[in-house]
Structure formats: C-alpha cells, structure tokens
Design brief:
The complex is a heterotetramer of chains A (115), B (780), C (502) and D (138). Chain B has 780 residues and is mainly alpha-helical. Chain B contains 34 helices and two strands. Among the domains of chain B are: 186 residues, no CATH class; 56 residues. In chain C, β1 and β2 form a beta hairpin. Chain C is globular and about 70 Å long. Classes of the chains: A mainly alpha (115), B mainly alpha (780), C mainly alpha (502), D mainly alpha (138).
C-alpha cells in the first residue's frame, strides 16, 4: 500500500488545487474539503502504515504487542479532522453570507475590496 | 551645563505655545531670552578654548548600538553655535512683529525653537549617530516651517520636496556613518578624528566618502541637489533667514569641516568637494540673474555662498579653512540682515519684486541702514567683514592656482551684483516699474528693526576689528578643524598686494554689471535656465506613482484564483528547488505488498474525488466528496485507526448535511472558465500533486530518526491509566492540543452563529436595535 | 527552569473569553471582563518577561509529561517579548473597542473572539512543539476569520473569502509539512528536532530537511504576508472595524514572522547559504512591493495595510543576516512596528470618527483643528518612517549596522530606499489629512476627543510605549541583544527543554 | 421532505444515539471512542431530529441553548487544567482516584475523564449551534 497511497494523496492534492482555482465559490469549498482529506492522509501515510493493529491495549493484557499502528499521528489527524470540520462549517456559512450580499457565487465578481 | 544648553531649546519649544498664549504680541521678546542667554554662555566658553579646555560630556545611551549622549564644544562647534543662538534670538524677536496676530504663532515658535535646539545638537554632538539624530530633526523642523502656511499648496509641496531631498541624502549619509564607524572602530567623533590614516587607506574609504558627501551636499544645497532651496523660500521670511540662509543649510558645511581631518586630504576629496563647491558657487550666482523676487535672489546667492564654503573646505589649506570660518560668520551676518530686511519690505510694501521697489530709504530708514551695511559687506567693500573673509578666500585659491582664483573671482563678482540689487537698489534707487504708490509704507515695528541693525552693525564692526574674532573663535575653530594648535592674526587691512587688487577688480566689475542690470535681465529672461534636478525630482515622483499604480494593479488585482496560482507556483518553485538540491539521494525502498480491497478503496477515493471535480451539480459534487471521505475513513480502519475511522465517518456525514443545508440557498454551478484556462489549471494541479507525491514517498521511505511513540505505548496504561493510547494522547499526553482544538470549534460555532444571525447591512431597514435587544432576539 | 505559571498567558485570555461567553447575553458585562482580562494579560506578560530576564529560559511540561513526549511550553526572551507585545496591544485594542465597536458586534461575541485571538497568539509564542503551534495558529486564524466577518457587510464578506481561502491554504501546507517532518524525524518537539538534526548533520539528510523547510517557509510566509504570498492582506484588512484591523496588524503577521525566526534559527539551520539568502531576497522584494502598494493608495487603512507588508521585510532581513545583532534588530523591529502601525490604525479610526471618511482626498485641516491628534499622529508616523529619534530609527539603524557588518550592501540599500518611500507616504497622509484645507464643509460629526477617553487613551498609551522604546533604547536594546544571543545559541533552548544531558 | 417514516425513525433513533454517545464517551479511555466521537454522535442525533421536526422543536427538546453547552464544555476543560494548577502541578496534569469495586476490579476516575467530558459537551454544542443556525437562515 505504501507504493499506492502517495499517488492517491498526490491526486487528491491535484484535484483540490484544481477546484480551488475555479471561479465558483461552491467549487472552492469542495476544493478545501479535498485539501483536508489529502493532508490527513498524508500525515497517516508519511508516518508509516501497519495493518489492522490498533494502538489499544487489550483488556486482558498489560502491554501492547508489536507491531501496532503508531498512535501519535492518529491523535494528530484526529485533531486536524475536527479543526477542519469547524473551519469547513464556518466557510460554508461565509459562502452563504457572501452569496447573499453579492448575489453571485462567481468569485471574479468579488473584488471590490482590492486596490 | 552644555547638555542643558542643548536640551533647554527643546523645553522652550514645547512651552512656546503656552507662553504665546499669555505673552501675545510680546512673545518674541520673552522667548528670545533663552537664545540670548545661550549666546552669552557660548561666549564665556571661548576663553577656555584657547588654553585647551574643551567642555565635553558623555553618557552612555545604548552600548550595543554604539550610541552615546556625547557632546563636545570645541572651536568649530562654537563658531556654528554662536551663529545659531545669536541669529536665533534676533529672528525670534523679529517673528512676532512679522506675524503680528495673524498666524498661530505658538506653533511657529514651537518648531523654530525645536529647530534651534536640534541645530545646536548637530554642532555639539560628539557621536556620529547622535549627530545624525539631530541632523534629521533639523530636516523635520524645516519641513514643518516651510509648510507653515499650510493652506498654500506650493508651500506644502516645497516642504515635502525639501524633506525628501535632505531626507534621502540623510539616509545615504547614515549608511556612510555606520560604515565609517565600522572602519574606524568607533562612532565617537573625537576618537575617529585621530584615525584619519587608517580610514583613508581602507578599501571602503571611497564608498564612505561618497555616501557622506551626498548627505552633506543635499543638506547644504550643493549642485545638483540645490533645487530644493529656492523652493523652500515658500517659508515665512523669518524661517528663510534662519534656516535656509544662516544656519541649517550650513550643517553640511559643518560636517565637511568636521570630518575633513579623517576623510580629507585625498585627491578625490579635493576634486569632489572643491569641484562641486566651485560649481555650486558659480551656478548659484548665475541662476540669480533671471530672478526678480528678492527672496529668490537671496536664495540663489545663498547657494552660491554655500558653494564657496564647500570649495574652501575642499581646498583644505589653513588659509582656506580660515577663509571658510570667516566667510561662514560674515555670510550669516549679512545674509541674515538682507533676509530680514526683505521680510520687512514684503511686510510693508506687500511685494518682493525688485522692479517695483525703490526709494524706500525715506520711509524705512533703519532697515535701509542695516541693509546697506550688509550689502556692502556682501559685496566685499574694504573695511567690511565680508571683505576680510573674501581676502582670505582669494588668498587660498590664489595659492592653488590660476584656475581656482578665477573661479573665486567669478563667484564673488556675481555676489557683488546681487548685493547691490537686493541691498541697495530698493532703498536708494527709483523703481523700474512705476506702481501706484503704496499709501502707508512706513518703517516696520521695532521688533523688525533690531535684527537688521545689530547684524548689519556687526558686519561693519567686525570688518574694522577682525582681531576680536581672530584671537578667540577663528583660531580655536581652526585648531579644531586642523587638529593642531593654530594661532590666527587677522587684520582689516593687509596693504596693497595682488589679492587686494583682485578685490578691487571684482568690486569694479560687479558694479559695472549692476549698472547694466536691466539689459542683463532681458538676456537672462530669454535664456531659459533649466539646471539641476528639479525636473528629475518631478519626473521621479510621477514615475513613482505610475510604477506604484501599475504594480498594484498587476499584483493586487482582486482575482482570487490568480492569487492562488501565484502562491502555489511560488511555493512549488521553492520546494522543488529544495528537492532539486537534495537530488534524490538513494530512492527509498517501499513495500509493494498490497491487498486487493485496499487497492479498491484507493481507486474509489481517487474516482470519487474525480467525480467531485467533474460533477455538474452541487449535490453530486458534495456526495462524491463524502464518498471520498468515507474511503479515507476506510483506510484508517484498515490500518489500525478505529478512532480516526469513526470520527471521519461521523464528520463526513455531518459535513454532507451542512453542505446540503447551506447549498439549499446557493445557485447551481456554471461553467465559467474557458478551456485554455482549465488546461493551465490542470497543469498547475498536476505539478503540485506530483510534488506532494514525491514528498510522501520520501517521508515514508526515509526515517532519519526513530519515532518517539514507544513512550506513549509503554506509559499509557501504567502512568496515564488508559488503554486506548490515541485517546490518552488526546486527553492527557497532548491535552493542550485538544484544548486548543475545542477552542477552535467553539470559535467556529460562535462564528457561524454570529455570521448567520447578525446582519448589519440589514439593520437600517428595521431601525437600530440596542445591543441587548439584538442579543435577546438573536436565536429566536 | 520549570515554571508552571508559564501557562498563564494562554489561560488568562481563555478564561476571559469563557467568562464573556457565560455572560453572552450581557454585552455590558462583557466589556468590563474584556478590558480587565486584557489588563491582566499585560500584567502576566510583564511578569513573565521579568522572570525570564532574571532566571533564564523558562519551561513547563504541560500535563507533567517530560519533553519531548508531552507538549512543552518554552519562554525564552524572544517568546516573552512577543507575549508582552500581545499584552500591550490587547489592552490598547480592548479599551479602544469599548465604544468604537458597535453594540451589535459586541452583542455577538466581539470580546470573547478578541480574547480567543490573543490566546492563540500567546500560545503560538510560547509553545515548544510544532504541532501545538499548528493548533494555536488555527485558534488564532479561526478567531480572526470570525472577527473579520463579524457584521456581515458586503466588503467584509469579499475580503473574508480571500483571507480565509489563502490562510487555509497556508494551514494545509503547514499540516502537510508537519506530517512529512514527523515521518522523517519521528518527533514534533522543536528542541528535540533541533538536537536530532544537529546530531545527524550528514549531507543527504541535511538536504532533505532543507527541502522540507521550504514548505514551512511557504506556510509561515503566507501568514507573515511576504512577497509573493501577501495578497490576502490588502484584500481584507481594511474591511472590518478599525479596532480589529489594528489588532490584526499588530499581531497576526507577527506570528508568522515569529514562527519563521523560530524555526529558521532553531531547527532549519542546515544550509543557511541557501535558506537565509532566500530569506534576504524575499525580504527585499517584500519591502519594495509593499511600499509601492502603499504609495498607490489614497484610503488610509489600505495605505497602512500595504505598509504592514513592506515592514515585514525588515525583520526578515534581520533573520537573513543571521547574526546576533541582526536578530536583535529583527525582534526590536517587530515590537516597534507593531506598536507604531496599530497606533496609526487607531488614529485613522479617530479621524474617520471625526470626519466620517478614510479617504485622504476628502480629509483636511486636522492640524489646525485637532493639534493633539496631529502630534500623536506625527510621532507614530515618523516612527514608522524611521525618522530619529523614534523607535523606528533605532530599529532601522540596528538593521543597517547588522547588514553592513556582514557586508550585505544590497539589502541595506533597499531597506534605506524603502524607508524613504515610507517617509514619503507618511508625509502624504500628513499633507492630505492634516495640512491641506478641508475640501468640504459638511459631514462634520459632533465628537469631542477630550470627552471620549476610550478612543484617545489607547492611542496615548501606545504612543507612550513608542517613546519608551526610543528613549529607553539603552536597556531595551540590551534586552534585544540578549534575545539575539539566545536565538543564535539554540543549545540554550535545547538544554532548557530537554535538560542538560539531552 | 419530512415524511412520517423519517419522523418515526428519528424519534426512535434519538434516545439510542444519545445513549450510544454517552457509552462512547465513557469507554473512550480504554476502547475506541471518546469525547469527540461521543459529542459528534449526540449532535448527529439532534441534527437528524431537527431536520425531521424543525429546529424549534429540537431546541425545545434539548432545553439548553447549544451556545451555553459550548461555554460549559469549554469551562469544564479549562477547569480541569486550573485544578491541577491549583494543586501545584503543571497545567493539565492528570490526577487519578481509585475506587476498589471488589470482584469487578477497580474504578479509576481522573481529571482526563473530566476533560474528555468537556470535549464532549463542546463538540456537541458547537455542532448543534452550526446545524441550527444553518437551518434557521431564511
């Protein structure tokens, strides 16, 4: 799987970037969603993969048997997932409000604030 | 005491508005007390100098930056300081008469004394950086004073021009100072002056010299930076007198004289300083011809005088420096007088056009007297102070060669002409153009007479008895400038020699020129004189605005996707650059071991993400995004991360719900970009994706150091009492992360709430609600 | 040195924010809580600086888990100075917001959001763990997103979309860089990373770490608004209420600069010829493009926003020079410029309150009418332009000293040229808003400054700080030199975190 | 949209989901689960409910304002940190109490569990705030 996932991650990034570059606000949001999937999967892959063995010490044992998955990146990803959930929710609300005040989701129409 | 002398001026500056509120018309007289007192104090220091007692003090300010509050009052400093405080007192008195009660005079005095104090700071500083501090403060006060009549656009523009020109020179000079300090190993002037040898042989000597010269030349209005000075005549006349004739513009002269010990002596110094000085001297006089405004006459003649001072420093011999000190004082006296008189004329006749003025001696006898004395001194008539100074200048130039003496003569010749036009003609000759006689031209008030009388009187007195100065100030100034004891003997009369004959010749030719002034003027008016960088200044401002406008339109254009493209390309470029430097090393070995269903999930993720990008409908895209998320969650599940998987599943579902709720109100997709742009975007996306792929390969294949995870595995149960290590990390080992994370969530919640409920753009329709009402009504 | 109260600069704003949330229906109480919380933060930050100054680098292992396994908070002098900056600006803006932020925004969580922002900023300054830094970045960002958009006016929305998108891109890059870094080095503790990278200084591993460092440069560079990553800033900073802009201008980009300085002195020092030269190039371009942007503006807040960018180049120049003096100058510069810039924003707010506009073309006559305001503006503006003896002058002087010592003539020349243009643009404001006569007679609001202390007190306070920074340059620069020394001796930091043996 | 089937299902699901969320929270320290998942689960229940019955009904059933949930959750998490600070320990140090339960072994309670409860409440509150707010826009 180590040989495959980098390509999956790369294509997620590529598609995220492509979506970010669209003129539609909604597509931009989809792009942000893809970007967060890509990043999380990247952390997961970059720290090494181990099949099935969750880092949970069984009730019957005092110690975890190797090999097992690395718990630290999992905790990091969990944090990142939850943060990106909050961010996505906010971005959605923002997109909705922006659409309401500008009356279009075309980002090219939203440039009155630049110099 | 010395430090009090410098600081007290600032104190007076800040008190001035208050004093003016109480003293009203008399404020000038009251405010002049301090400068008079300072002048007397400086005079008391003179005798000590002869016996080698130089008052000095030094407090540390910032050791790391080499900054000290170091002040030193040697002869050179005192020569300038006397000019500053002496003329300062007279100008202060003069100004209250000049303004009457027409202007916010408190603010005027504030900046005037601010300037006086700064200028004293410049001449007394013994630390290069401290000197620079005061130097820039003089620029600042000059800015405020030139623009004093703020309603007039020309005044404001002139103020800005003066600030920018002297300011840019100052910045260049700062670099020069810092380099000089690094070469010389100290920023203390008195210590630096002993290191002339090591500085002039240093490879950076030339750079330092040029940088510092630029600073001095901009301040002292040397060609080609002279153009700001005539424009600065937009300032009220007391300001022109004080700053732009007598004192501030001489700061550059002071600096050159001060540093000549350490920087001077080379042939570059001689040609750069002497040459530019001579050029300025002649050009300044020449440019005066086409003028008719008294003040502009004086401005150009000041440029010319500054040129001769700089030339004298460039020549650098003992006689030249003697001439410089004498000419400095003489010029301060006569030019100060003439400016003040011009102000009085302007005040009474409401015009400064020399053609409209004439026969004023009857109505303004006191000013006529002062003006005449000053003009004769300026013209270099024997027995006047200006004559003494000119004699020495001639002598110095004569010793260098015929070329230099002829330059000096031309410069002086032009000065004679200007002296007669400005100082004599308005009083003693009839006006060229008959204007209807002003009804009430009479002598200016006493406050405006005392200055011209004292300064003009001194121009004669010191010409008769120059040895008053010779013994005290000139010898100690020369001692300071040359770094060795110098005994100076001055006499009003040296007998008839070559130099004297040259002086007479100059005078005669000058008067001759004056006689044909009307013809000269006609010629000068035809020959358009566009010298200097005035045009360049305007053009560079225009260019600056054009460039700035162009750049801003190009960079900050408002299209989000081009911002993104720029950023992504930049990031890809520097990262790819980094990877390229790495060059790949040995490619990491990765396992090809893969299960069939794993591959299936990978394909599903990529395909659904692809669907999300291609979908024409919003809901389709969101659904596809959700499927991709579920795919990612499955990978977590397969590779030992059940917590992650659960969370991802739930969050993905909730996200889809949120998207649907929000999209309910949003329009459908439209195809907005042409094919070319889409292809370009695909290209950028593929490059980025490829780069990230390489990065992931590298990071998962190479491990420079083993992970710290075993610690958590070992200690989770015994120390943290938990079996689910991921959860233990979240709530215990790295609890702070989690605290931050739920804070982010809380803010997001608050944000969504506020964003959707608070709508300031709608409030006007309903009328304003109070904060409490809004808060109460918020979620109903 | 172990000091468990090191957490206070994070806890105090959080506590303040939570209290405000609990009083969500009582905006008046929130004001009091908000202002006193900010005051408390300033007190705590000063205490922290004093402790670090006297007793050396302070650390706390949060949760009592030894480094590098738990999260370590570290306060070296650099961190402590930055926390003080947050405290100073927090107090000023909290008071300024009292009346300048409208009641509706206050009712919808303005004060708690402001304190969440401060919490994120302080957390970022204090943390010794890279992932934890990411979390604090997100706290700060999320709070700034909401503050920027709070009110929902059209301009705010348009600005916020760009701000949010580009900053999320930065977060994504940061997160990816973290994942890769963990994959390579197996740890996230900054001291641990520094030590490990120093111990394996072989060429190939250095090269790969340097390549990775570029991702961090990009992520922090976007936050710091350097060329060519700054677009979000001019697009958005002028849209929210001016108190928000002042807070952002003083703190947000500075967190980016802080992070750059931190990682490029502590962790990524493998190939300084490449990385730090690149930083110098970026610094120069940032200065130039920023100041040119400012020259083109006529709206005060936009003009000042471009100056934020331009002034970011200077601390980067100090970092690129990479000597103790250069870093001391960089940190002094950051402190000075945050204060000066926020003051200018606050003053622009007062001007808009007086005259109803930010547009220079429609302003005028303020020198005659509001002499005190003019003086305050002059001090702040000249400080920004670096005219002596203002704090800006010493900041520039120290950078020039450091640059010339290292014979970096080009960047010194650029920095001086840019400071001339900065002066020009400050003079432009002075000329248009203060000197020129007012073009129109109407639109004068009845607003007496002397009676509206909440508008003027923070400005006085910040100007006071600027004056202290300049005349107190002796002791203050001694402090900054220590900051520079600590930064150039990462061993001190590593030892404080991991203990003597490592 | 809101069919009868959905309403009936949701009415049955809500208590189940809530119970399951508490279960996830409690076992989280030793088995997969925890405050995040628990909070999300509880929120999902109410989100479904509010889609089926409208946000007003959902708010009424919930009784407590979701914004207040955020405040309480966040203060709880902060409080666990402050307690340890008061007990002369670094912020967020885990403190454990053991209760022997005879043959069942022993029950271990510690501040990390309290912290997790704070996480649970915050996540719950935030998610609901967002869902309700998005639902209520007109």
């Amino acid at each position: 799987m180590e040989m495959v996932l980098p390509f999956v991650i790369g294509s997620l990034y590529a598609m995220a970037i492509y979506m970010l570059l669209r003129r539609s606000l909604v597509k931009l949001l989809i792009g942000l969603g893809l970007l967060s999937h890509a990043s999380n999967l990247l952390i997961f892959t970059a720290s090494g993969l181990t099949r099935f063995k969750a880092p949970v010490i069984p009730m019957t044992a005092e110690q975890l048997q190797s090999p097992h998955a690395d718990p630290l990146p999992q905790a990091l990803i969990l944090t990142a997932i939850v943060i990106s959930f909050g961010v996505t929710a906010f971005a959605l609300a923002l997109a909705y409000r922006a659409y309401r005040s500008v009356n279009t989701d075309d980002l090219d129409q939203m440039k009155s604030t630049d110099a | 005491m010395l430090i009090v002398a410098v600081i007290s001026g600032f104190g007076l500056a800040f008190l001035a508005p208050t004093i003016c509120r109480f003293a009203k018309q008399k404020s000038g007289w009251w405010l002049a007390i301090l400068p008079v007192f300072l002048t007397l104090y400086f005079l008391t220091l003179l005798p000590g100098l002869a016996s080698g007692q130089i008052p000095a003090l030094s407090y540390e300010w910032s050791k790391e930056l080499g900054l000290t509050f170091a002040f030193r009052a040697d002869g050179l400093s005192l020569a300038f300081a006397l000019l500053v405080s002496g003329i300062g007192a007279l100008v202060a008195i003069y100004a209250s008469g000049y303004f009457g009660n027409k202007a916010p005079i408190g603010r005027f005095y504030l900046w005037l004394f601010f300037f006086m104090a700064s200028m004293l700071g410049v001449v007394f500083s013994d630390n290069l950086i401290l000197l620079f501090v005061f130097w820039e403060l003089t620029s600042l006060s000059s800015f405020m004073l030139i623009g004093f009549e703020q309603e007039r656009e020309e005044a404001r523009a002139a103020a800005i021009q003066a600030l920018l020109v002297t300011g840019s020179g100052g910045l260049v000079m700062l670099a020069g100072f810092v380099l000089l300090g690094q070469i010389g190993g100290t920023l203390e002037l008195s210590a630096l002056l002993l290191k002339g040898e090591s500085v002039s042989t240093h490879p950076l000597y030339l750079a330092v010299l040029i940088l510092i010269l630029i600073g001095a030349f901009t301040k002292s209005a040397q060609v080609p930076f002279h153009f700001w000075l005539p424009n600065a005549m937009q300032a009220p006349t007391p300001v022109s007198t004080y700053l732009h004739a007598a004192t501030m513009v001489k700061a550059g002269v002071y600096l050159l004289a001060r540093l000549s010990l350490v920087l001077g002596g080379s042939s570059f110094w001689f040609w750069a300083v002497g040459g530019i000085g001579a050029l300025t001297m002649i050009l300044g006089g020449y440019l005066a011809f086409s003028q008719t405004d008294l003040k502009r006459y004086l401005a150009y003649s000041t440029i010319s005088a500054l040129g001769s001072l700089v030339m004298a420093i460039g020549i650098g011999s003992e006689t030249a420096l003697k001439a410089m000190v004498l000419f400095l004082l003489a010029h301060g006296l006569y030019k100060g007088t003439l400016f003040l008189v011009t102000g009085a004329i302007d005040h009474e006749c409401k015009t400064r056009d020399v053609r409209e003025l004439g026969g004023l001696w009857r109505s303004m006898p006191y000013n006529a007297a002062g003006s005449t004395l000053a003009a004769l001194s300026m013209a270099g008539v024997p027995l006047f102070f200006g004559f003494v100074a000119k004699e020495y200048l001639y002598e110095a130039a004569y010793k260098v060669g015929a070329f230099w003496i002829s330059l000096a003569i031309i410069g002086a010749l032009l000065n004679v002409f200007i002296a007669f036009r400005v100082g004599i003609e308005p009083f003693w000759l009839p006006s060229q153009i008959e204007v209807k006689p002003s009804k009430h031209v009479h002598e200016a008030p006493w406050s405006m007479r005392i200055g011209p009388l004292i300064l003009g009187g001194l121009s004669l007195l010191l010409g008769l008895f120059p040895q008053i100065l010779g013994r005290s100030i000139v010898s100690s100034a020369l001692t300071a400038a040359l770094g060795r004891p110098v005994e100076v003997k001055l006499a009003a009369w040296h007998g008839v020699n070559d130099i004297f004959l040259l002086s007479l010749l100059t005078l005669g030719l000058g008067v001759g020129l004056f006689a044909v002034r009307q013809d000269l003027q006609r010629i000068a008016e035809k020959v358009s004189l566009r010298w200097g960088l005035d045009g360049l200044y305007k053009r560079s401002l225009d260019f600056l605005f054009t460039l700035a406008g162009f750049q801003t339109r190009t960079l900050q254009h408002g299209y989000l996707r081009y911002y993104l493209i720029t950023i992504i390309v930049a990031v890809v470029a520097i990262t790819a650059g980094g990877l390229w430097r790495w060059g790949g090393g040995t490619l990491p070995y990765l396992s090809w071991d893969i299960y069939f269903y794993e591959l299936g999930i990978a394909v599903i993720i990529v395909l659904s993400a692809f669907m999300a990008t291609l979908s024409r409908s919003r809901l389709g895209a969101v659904a596809a995004l959700g499927v991709a998320g579920y795919g990612v969650a499955s990978i977590y599940l397969l590779f030992g991360a059940p917590d992650l998987a659960m969370t991802q599943f739930l969050i993905e579902s909730l996200t889809v719900v949120l998207f649907v709720l929000a999209f309910y109100h949003l329009p459908n997709f439209a195809q907005l970009t042409p094919k070319r742009e889409r292809l370009r975007d695909v290209f950028i996306a593929l490059i980025t994706g490829g780069l990230m792929t390489i990065f992931v390969f590298v990071a998962s294949g190479i491990q420079i150091h083993p992970t710290i995870s075993p610690f958590f595995v070992e200690n989770s149960l015994p120390l943290a009492h938990g079996r689910n290590i991921v959860n233990v990390i979240l709530v215990d080992f790295r609890g702070l992360d989690t605290l931050g994370e739920i804070t982010v969530l809380a803010i997001a919640g608050l944000g969504v709430f506020a964003l959707l409920k608070l709508r300031l753009d709608l409030r006007t329709a309903k009328g304003k609600k109070s904060a409490e009402e809004i808060a109460k009504g918020g979620d109903q | 040195m172990m000091n468990r109260f090191l957490i206070l600069p994070i806890v105090v704003p959080l506590l303040t924010a939570v209290l405000c949330l609990l009083f969500f229906r009582k905006p008046r109480a929130q004001r009091w809580i908000g202002v006193s919380g900010a005051g408390l933060l300033l007190g705590v930050s000063l205490w922290l600086l004093q402790v670090v100054w006297q007793q050396g680098i302070q650390t706390v292992q949060v949760g009592n888990w030894q480094a590098p396994f738990g999260i370590t908070l570290v306060a070296d002098l650099f961190s402590a100075v930055m926390v003080v900056l947050a405290g100073v600006l927090g107090v000023a803006v909290a008071i300024y917001s009292w009346e300048s932020i409208d009641a509706q925004r206050q009712a919808f969580g303005y004060y708690p959001l402001m304190h969440f922002l401060l919490m994120g900023v302080c957390g970022a300054f204090l943390t010794g763990d890279l992932f934890n830094l990411y979390v604090w970045f997100e706290v700060m960002l999320m709070a700034s997103f909401v503050l920027l958009a709070l009110g929902g006016e059209r301009g705010q929305m348009e600005g916020a979309i760009k701000y949010v998108t580009l900053n999320l891109l930065s977060s994504a890059i940061f997160l990816a860089a973290l994942g890769l870094l963990y994959g390579l080095a197996g740890t996230l503790n900054m001291a641990d990373l520094a030590q490990k990278f120093a111990s394996t200084a072989s060429a190939p591993s250095n090269a790969i770490v340097t390549a990775l460092s570029m991702l961090f440069l990009a992520a922090f560079g976007i936050k710091a608004a350097v060329f060519p990553l700054f677009f979000w800033l001019p697009a958005s900073y002028h849209t929210p209420p001016v108190a928000v802009t002042a807070l952002f201008s003083g703190l947000l980009t500075k967190v980016g600069v802080y992070s750059l300085i931190r990682v490029f002195t502590l962790i990524f020092v493998q190939d300084t010829v490449y990385t730090h030269t690149l930083l110098l190039v970026i610094a120069g371009l940032t200065m130039i493009t920023g100041v040119l942007g400012a020259v083109a503006q006529n709206e005060m807040r936009r003009l000042l926003s471009f100056h934020i960018i331009s002034q970011i180049g200077y601390p980067l120049m100090g970092l690129g020079i990479f000597t103790p003096l250069g870093l001391a100058a960089a940190v002094y510069f950051v402190f000075h410029v945050s204060i000066a810039k926020s003051t200018l924003f606050l003053i622009s707010g007062v001007i808009a309150r007086l005259r109803g506009v930010y547009d220079l073309k429609k302003l005028g006559g303020l020198y005659k009418k509001e002499a005190w305001l003019a003086i305050l503006f002059l001090i702040a503006a000249l400080s920004l332009a670096g005219l002596p003896p203002s704090s800006g002058f010493f900041a520039k002087l120290s950078l020039v000293l450091a640059g010339l010592q290292q014979a970096q003539y080009l960047i010194v020349a650029v920095s001086l040229g840019v400071s001339l243009l900065t002066l020009f643009s400050m003079v432009k404001i002075w000329n248009e808003a203060f000197w020129k006569e007012k073009p129109t007679v109407e639109d004068e609001t009845k607003f007496a400054l002397a009676q509206n202390w909440s508008w003027i007190l923070p400005i006085l306070f910040l100007v006071g700080v600027t004056i202290v920074l300049s005349f107190g340059i002796g002791p203050i620069f001694r402090l900054m030199s220590q900051v520079g020394n600590q930064l150039m001796n990462p061993q001190l930091y590593i030892q404080a975190v991991l203990g003597g043996g490592g | 949209m809101t069919s009868l089937i959905l309403r009936t299902m949701v009415r049955l699901l809500l208590p189940l989901l809530l119970m399951f969320s508490v279960f996830l929270l409690l076992r989280g320290h030793n088995e997969p689960g925890g405050g995040f998942v628990g909070g999300l689960m509880a929120a999902t229940g109410f989100a479904l409910f509010s889609i089926a019955f409208g946000s007003e009904t959902a708010r009424r059933i919930l009784r407590i304002d979701p914004l207040a949930l955020i405040g309480v959750g966040l203060s709880l998490a902060l409080l666990t940190g402050l307690i340890t600070l008061g007990l002369n320990q670094p912020f967020l140090t885990g403190i454990w109490f053991k209760f022997p339960l005879g043959s069942f072994g022993k029950l271990e309670l510690g501040t990390p569990l309290l912290f997790d409860l704070g996480v649970y409440l915050t996540v719950w509150g935030v998610t609901l705030t967002i869902v309700f707010a998005l639902e209520e826009v007109k």
